[in-house]
């Protein structure tokens, strides 16, 4: 079956949905206390009375599983968009320092309480600033090479992480040290029903908007000049896409810290399966990201139980080697677009 | 089919920094449906002139008129509906199939959220056929050779349904047969054609008029038989050549001569 066939896309989406649902049920059943799947389903459908199981499933694990799905899908979407914007598969909100920018912005708001600025707004400003700096640095002299893009991302990431540490460590409040650890390592341990609404809303709006923008995203693959001659106002579209990517990243970072490499690996895998056209790529990447992070979080909670591993550590352990492999291929000039 | 576009470049200059001009006061005209060739040595400004025409460079002086409208005032989309481009260097379509790259050519005729319809798909298939690229349709674009990419980009320009088709060195990667097929296709399109060409014999045969650039300035402009002279080739390219009208094609034909070849009487 050709990679671009609609039937194949539908089958892939169905398969990923099945994996996501199975992962979610496992995520609800497994953990410090094992809950039989029957009890889980009973709790979900409201057929069980008030019991400790019901409380664990509905108030502790369900928001966490949902947050994992939302964050995973969001990171994969942002990664897909960034890769189209820089025309390079070595792009990810974490690697390009956008997550660090969001952390720094959020940290400044938390510690200094700047006026009426909320934490997500601070995170958004930080993310946007980081993205603009990395983009400008990587593009100096006209063409953007993989090497320069990665160096710019890493440099900005270091400076911003240091700034975040400085701000939070020198603060007199003890609580801020925990916040620092959370943002740096990335985790889903703070999931609660009331922190879920904003990221879910932003993800949904982002997905709808991006699907509508599938055509201009495809045009970006033709390069700046190509896209212009095909009728795209590249400057304006890029600015809009930067704002959208920064916004989604910022909201995700405020609820889950910096979880790296999901936005790198998932879009790449999705492209291998359904091709690079965004109308097919975006939904597959979103579903894949959701399924991946739900499973990764399940592993984070169970492999070293009762100790919990921050999920960002797990994604880095799998994503780092993948990143090196991708870099090697891109330096050999092999087709890195799958 | 879109109506052929009238092109007029009025004293167009493009300066990269104070005083250094890549093209200087170039005036050029193409009537609707004409095929006009831009020739000149490397670095003479052919690509820069084309870029000014299709709008990825904005002239620092002078203006480009498309059907009488100032090109600089058109939106990217309005311009893309009028002018299609076959770039010199593959552009790209990373990870897309050849057919998907061709389908991008429908974009200027669509709202950005619109998908491709069955009619678009039919146009894409027809363009692939005309460009001799139908067997390539499902291949990944980046797996294609230079010449194959060229044909895909020609098909992309065809589905754009332009009034003016701009081609930058379109025959570069092509073997002789495809050079002829491509240029025949371009000449026979109702659209106005503007081509930067290296091969003077192809230019002489396929173009209604030639525009010769040297160091960014116009040095000659007119029908090939008037423009392509032995004297001009010596002055602009620094080569010795013999130009004759070929008895069967009726087009001027250039034969290059070694500088040390002895003169013979004609």
UniProtKB/TrEMBL annotation, chain B:
CDD domains: ABC_Iron-Siderophores_B12_Hemin. Gene3D superfamilies: P-loop containing nucleotide triphosphate hydrolases. GO terms for molecular function: ATP binding; ATP hydrolysis activity. InterPro entries: AAA+_ATPase (IPR003593), ABC_transporter-like_ATP-bd (IPR003439), ABC_transporter-like_CS (IPR017871), P-loop_NTPase (IPR027417). Keywords: ATP-binding, Nucleotide-binding, Transport. Residues 7-240 form the ABC transporter domain. It holds the Pfam family ABC_tran. This is ABC transporter ATP-binding protein.
